[in-house]
Amino acid sequence: MSNNISSLKALAASITPKKEGDIGAKRGDFYSFPLDLFEEQPGFNPRNYDNPKTKAHIEKLAQAYMAGQMLPPLIVQVVDGRLIVRAGHCRRLGARLARERGAQILRLSCIEMKGDVNEQDALLVTSQDSLDLSPIQRARVYMRYINRGMSPDEAGVYVNKSGKHIKEELELLALPDELQALVEDDVVKPYLARKLFKVHGGEKALNMVLAQIAALESEDENDPQQPLVPGATATPKNRRVTEKQFKNVMPLTIKKSFAQTMFNGFSSLRQHVKDAQPDATDGTIQLKLPADIFAQLDTILAEVEKLKAKQLAPKTDGTEEGTNDDNQQQLAV
């Protein structure tokens, strides 16, 4: 096959059957090519095919192909006469699995992509496939843009995301490999892993998460879940490390508006501290404050107490805090 072929039309013409039994290409609403011609470029797709979710997804696609269901065409690029998949990697594997089980799959439909490497990477993130990339997998794609000299804002244009989103997901790549794996397995949420890493560093963050996992496993051993049906095997609990398990070692999160109020209040207080009168006889200091400054300080202290109470109170709505850093700051108290 010629290395000069760079389009589906030319590729289809080049594989015209020459003898009985050869499988050529077909042209209908889409081009259809022999299944074995579709290739995956090593390292292009960031998915982990050994991940249970990915395996289940491919199995579901294989069953769909075996049932004769119509699935979307693959998106491909012709490179030096080779048919390289750019979107639909799991569909390709599902079709091959179905064929191994006896399904008569001669060809797969495909659409040609003409974009450059940036648009090809964007397709991985924005593709409407039913199995989304994980945050770690997306971060690996985003890093390709950074390695090409782009800023997070510039990379975000290609995937319709903000530069802030790109930067946050890139931070996941700084986590220890074992902590990344726990994020991949949905044992710990990405935002919590990032927060623990920022506050405590990689090694300590990992050890803290592992300690919580061990504690949860110990709970399971002491309180095994009973099966609903007598005689059936108990289903293991789906354990996940959450932010409330670290409430005693994490800084409080406060709104930027309150941080500004604190700054203004303590700035005003500092001016009056300079005029404070120490009493050498009993080691105390007398400080006279205007009523408005005292009221401002009292308000700040009351808000801090509310924050402490909020941190210690258990969450009842199932949501997690700390997912939006735009208007928040951390306060260690």
UniProtKB/TrEMBL annotation:
Residues 220-239, 311-333 are annotated as: Disordered. It holds the Pfam family HTH_ParB. Residues 132-208 form the ParB/Spo0J HTH domain. Transmembrane segments: none annotated. InterPro entries: HTH_ParB/Spo0J. Gene3D superfamilies: 1.10.10.2830. Keywords: Plasmid. The keyword Magnesium does not apply. This is ParB/Spo0J HTH domain-containing protein. It comes from Pseudomonas frederiksbergensis.
